[in-house]
Design a protein that fits this description.
The protein is α+β, with helices and mostly antiparallel strands. Helix content is 25%, strand content 31%. It has nine helices and 21 strands. The strands form six sheets. Strands 10, 12, 14, 15, 18 and 21 form a six-stranded mixed sheet that branches. A hairpin with a 2-residue loop joins strand 4 and strand 5.
């Protein structure tokens, strides 16, 4: 399974010195990698070059996200690649292939790594699915660094597809590199709940009721949100109170809908002690998505324009009578 964003924003740690050292080392490895033995040679070279686990992990992570593309065609034809030699030869894979390459490279580089199976929530279509019982549709990894387990989604970190999964864009996204477990759990649910790495694991019925959370949640440093349930049952004329916990400054909120094209509203959220509050009045009847974008808009007096950084944050599903 591959993630697709309505508004793709990339979170990266590229300026960290350790990343540059890993990048420089990988550029120095000029031999072809098209089979398992080549990959293991790269892993051994990484292990020899870097003495610490963190640097080894960065090098293995970078190689995979820079060299493997998501196999949209294989997914549609139900002939997707996951076997190691096939992935390395064609440089295409679905999630099972990504984690297979990453785990094998980590093993050769001296980094403990395991596969984690579970459910990954992404894409607009996941709003429409009411899942009463757990199902698996995705695979990611956990790595052990300094005696502590960290979570990595190597597939989602490599880029994104369009909604129909007909095209893949290679684009680094470090949000899924050693993500804080409490936030990783917003869109990943492991089959084995211990891999949530949380002292109090989230129940499946709580997880699948979450709204669809997009990259704006990260870019806008939103620590918490309300309502917590994706489905909002209301009557026309009723109001919905939205709350967002963040220390980041915002002066605009946009509410729009992909399904209900005529729904588009720009307004100013109310500042609270912990973040922001906005009361929205239901004007349209029907069943439709409600997309919320928070932003900070700055006026440029010279050109008399407003420059706006727009991030998709949260999408709910409204049932208005």
């Amino acid at each position: 399974m591959m993630i697709s964003f309505l508004c793709q924003i990339v979170f990266s740690q590229k300026n960290d010195k350790g990343w540059k050292e890993a990048e420089d080392f990988l550029r120095s490895q000029t031999y072809s990698i098209s089979k398992t033995s080549d990959l293991r040679l790269l892993g051994r070279n990484i292990k020899h070059r870097f003495t610490d686990e963190t640097s080894r992990l960065k090098a293995t992570y970078l190689w995979v996200i820079q060299n493997i593309n998501y196999d949209c065609e294989g997914l549609k034809n139900k002939n997707s690649r996951w076997a190691l030699d096939s992935v390395l030869l064609n440089r295409k894979a679905v999630c099972a292939g990504y984690v297979n390459v990453f785990r094998n490279l980590c093993d050769a580089a001296g980094v403990e790594c395991v596969d984690v199976n579970g459910y990954g929530r992404s894409g607009f279509e996941s709003l429409l699915v009411n899942i009463d019982s757990f199902m698996t549709n995705h695979t990611w990894n956990a790595v052990k660094i300094g005696g502590e387990w960290k979570l990595i989604d190597i597939t989602w970190a490599s880029g994104y597809t369009n909604e129909d999964c007909t095209d893949f864009t290679l684009h680094r996204n470090d949000w899924y590199f050693c993500t804080e477990p409490s936030r990783f759990a917003w869109d990943h649910y492991p089959q084995d709940s211990s891999w949530q790495l949380l002292s109090k694991p989230i129940a499946w019925k709580e997880f699948y009721r979450y709204p669809l959370l997009y990259q704006g949640i990260v870019e806008n440093n939103i620590e918490d949100f309300f309502p917590r349930s994706v489905i909002i049952h209301k009557n026309v004329g009723d109001t919905i109170q939205f709350h967002f916990k963040s220390k980041q400054p915002f002066n605009r909120i946009i509410l729009s809908s992909r399904k209900l094209k005529q729904l588009y509203l720009t307004d100013t959220p109310e500042r609270t002690r912990e973040g922001y509050r906005y009361v929205y009045r239901i004007e349209k009847q029907g069943v439709y998505d409600l997309q919320i974008d928070l932003m900070f808009a700055e006026a440029n007096r010279t050109f008399n324009t407003i420059y706006v950084k727009t991030y998709t944050d949260i999408i709910y599903w409204v049932n208005a009578k």
